[in-house]
Structures are given as structure tokens and as C-alpha cells.
């Protein structure tokens, strides 16, 4: 059984984007499930199987996918549906994972893969910053290893100034890392990257290349200081 992403997959995602209303969505709901959601769930299952003996056990499937329906109660954008299919691979096998995870997003332009820790509060980001300072050589090795795979930490949403408690480190060689609000690495995906069974290998290779990111935060984020 193949993954099943095709030109029709992207046509449907474009359709949701361009016809974001209940009538169009329900008229195409069965096809969206067949060509977008079901193969995405199967991809997560296949990746789980391929990673079954990996050092950081990650798993996912239908239960770790996010809904297409949007909660618009407090949103400025009142479109009722997301036009991307997304989900995660987590150590708990649940999508409400509070620790490190791998994120997959399929959208009309292609999408992206991500790995690490996202949406951390300052309190939960603090231990990662502490660890960067306590073990700078390990962190620098991590950055160098990521670069070998053409990957790097995302710094787009970094703080302009040093975070509270780290203001005396403004001149530190790793100050840029201390200013990060998230501890995430991403990889853009083109449409063709999703087509064929090779997408499983692409996801698995990405997980293996970013495992050190997850491991770096295991102690510091998943077991935060009291």
C-alpha cells in the first residue's frame, strides 16, 4: 500500500483555501479524507514503524493529527477550516505532548517538517538556556551536526533583547541561542517531496538528523526546575 499523496491532494488543499466555507468543504469531505487525511495518517504510522528501534521512541497516527476545523471564537481570521493537514510524532503517542516532538505539515505549497520544542514559556525555556551555557561544546557540536544536513535552528521569532536572567550574557558567543523563544529545527517540503513512498524515508531521515535536538531538551524541558 502506497502513501497516496498526489496532484489531487494539493488540488483539494487549494480548494479548501480558495473556497473556505461549509458548503464546499462538506461537498468534498470524502475526497479530502481519501486523498489528504488518510494518507497522512498512514505516513505517520509508517514512520512510527521505521523508528521502532530508534534511540528516541516516537509514534503517531490518526490520533496525533490536528483537525481541519478551526476554533474561530477568538480569532481575527474567521475561516472555518485549515487548508493544511498536520500532525505529530511524539514519545507519548498523543498529540498533546508537552515535550519534544516532530511536526509534519502538508499544505498547498508543500509544507514543512519540524523537530524540537515549540511554544515554550520563559520558565520552560530557561532550563534549555541554562544547559546551553553549562555545556556549550555539546550545543556547538549539535549545531555543526545539523549543518551537515543543511539544517539549523529557527531564529525568526527570537527575542530582540536578552531574556530575563541572562542579560549579563549579551556578549556570549551563544547569545543568539539564548535569545531563541523556541528550540526548533525546520525543513521546508516541496510538493514532490510528498509524492511516493520515499516520503517515509524523508521523514525518518529528518527525525534521525534532529534526534540530538530532542535529546538535548529531554532533561531540561521535560523535567523543568522546580
UniProtKB/TrEMBL annotation:
UniProt xrefs under InterPro entries: CHP02453, UCP028451
Pfam family, one: DUF2461
Name by which UniProt lists this protein: TIGR02453 family protein
